[in-house]
Amino acid sequence: MFPVLSVYDCDEVIMAYIIKDCTEEQLPEIMAIFNDVIVNSTALYEYKPRTASSMQSWYAAKRKGNYPIIGAFDNNGVLLGFASFGSFRDYPAFKYTVEHSIYIKSDARRQGLGKILLKKIIENAEAQGYHILVAAIDKLNMQSIKFHERAGFIYCGEIKESGYKFGKWLDLVFYELILKTPI
Question: Among 121, 137, 150, 181, which residue has the fewest nearby CB atoms (within 10 Å)?
Fold first, then answer.
């Protein structure tokens, strides 16, 4: 369990968040966040909303790989956003590199949750001995690009027209953060 974190405006607490690992119980809320992103954005290069069955498989794969699913909850226990990471490429030489994702509920964005969750993901990746954290971002998602740059990620490549969604070709850019690891 992680501590309760508060966002401050001068000396006044704006909102307190509970940061903790998500469990199977949160899968419907996670699925709702994923599906909103799938239907309304290019943050995920998927066409169809996820199903309860696909979420069970996703959750099982995260648990099997010892990959975290860290949630930000309001004081009523409602999931406002989550972050996770997983395998970058399934080859032995990539075992120290993981790709992360952060998704925030549409009505909870711009409250500092992404920054809090990214910090927890970085801490978790370092504690597990990973060396590189990768972000794969749609090139037109300037908000995510600027967010990652402010966190110290650097641009490391682009795949032009790698996806097709909403009737147009999408370019995928990669950003990386080299972690403080013992190796």
Answer: 150
Structure tokens at 133: 């954290």
- pLDDT tens for residues 62-103? 999 999 999 999 999 999 999 999 999 999 999 999 999 999
181 in Cβ contact with 96 (< 8 Å)? yes
Give the pairing type, strands 4-9 and 79-87: unpaired
Judged by DSSP in three states, 77 sits in coil
Residue 161 to residues 47, 49, 89, 138, 142, Cα–Cα distance (Å):
16, 22, 20, 10, 17
Enter the pTM of the model: 0.89
- How many whole angstroms from its chain centre is CA 55? 15
Q: Which of 66, 61, 133 is nearest to 102 (CA)?
A: 133
The CATH superfamily label for domain 4-178 reads: Gcn5-related N-acetyltransferase (GNAT) (3.40.630.30)
Domain ranges of the chain: 4-178
Residue pair 56/27 in contact (Cβ under 8 Å)? The answer is yes
Instruction: Tell me the three state secondary structure of residue 21.
Output: strand
